[in-house]
Amino acid sequence: MQFARVERVPAAGTIVHATDVWEEAAGGGPVTAAQLAQLGAEIEYTVALGDDELGRRAHVQFVEQNLRPRVQWRREATRRAFTYVDAAGERTITVLGDKLLPDGPLAIDADACFFVSGDVEALRSARAAPFLAAVGREAATLREAGVPLDLLVASATDAGEDVEGIEAALVVLTDGANGGTANGRRYEAAPVQGPVSDAYGCGDSFGAALAFALVRGDDLDAALRLAARAGAAELTGRGPYPAQISA
Question: For 31-72, how does the pLDDT look when each residue is reduced to its tens digit (9 = 90+)?
Fold first, then answer.
């Protein structure tokens, strides 16, 4: 993922100058895994990467982040993406190339599994874990697999995350600064502790912290408070990792 900080996202035909540019391996999978690791979980991160320079660089980063990556190496190119971060901290993402999906079945030996992407067989095998969480942007795969979830986290404002008809014990719909709902009951957003920098990764860190708290036995209100704090903290970092919470 290449990031560029700009005053505003350019309108058609205009040119903008970036005040800051950086790149790192990112996306829903590693952001979720990294937040779980920051909270103290022992991670095994299953990921598909192209056997190319970008894939190898991503692998090195995941090892350094203590994500214990289990890589399915592919002949296809590792997907790239470009993100504008504007003056308000909002991110606008352009994806370049196709997503590489981990194939199942997978050997699962864990207290919990968080499904961010993969094929139907990967998801079905993930149900072997005592606790299974998933994200709403994979709604089509969730419906096709037909496995019940313990936790489903989706955006209340993203039309692409329609979770109607997906079986889940707990459905949390996030709505940014407005908080969100958990099985229809509202919860509040946490205050942002510092200047807003970058919204990239807020939802994934929220979902990871929520799953972590529920698996360790927190009640729902306490789990939502931790998750809301994780999501708010992400707003203060440069990229998805520096501001992730550790407790």
Answer: 999 999 999 999 999 999 999 999 999 999 999 999 999 999
Which DSSP string corresponds to the chain? -EEEE-SSPPPTT-----SEEEE---SHHHHHHHHHHHTT----EEEEEESSHHHHHHHHHHHHTT--EEEEEESSPPPEEEEEE-TTS-EEEEEESPPPPPPS-----SS-EEESS--HHHHHHHTTSSSEEEEGGGHHHHHHH---EEEEEEESS-TT---TT--EEEEEEE-GGG-EEETTEEEPPPPP-S-----TTHHHHHHHHHHHHHHHT--HHHHHHHHHHHHHHHTTSSSSSTT----
End-to-end CA distance of the chain: give it in Å, rounded: 27
pLDDT attached to residue 116: 97
- CATH of 26-77+100-234 given 3.40.1190.20, 3.30.870.10, 3.30.470.20, 1.20.120.790: 3.40.1190.20
Q: Are strands 45-50 and 69-74 parallel, antiparallel or unpaired?
A: parallel
Pairing of strands 185-187, 180-182: antiparallel
- pTM, two decimals, is 0.95
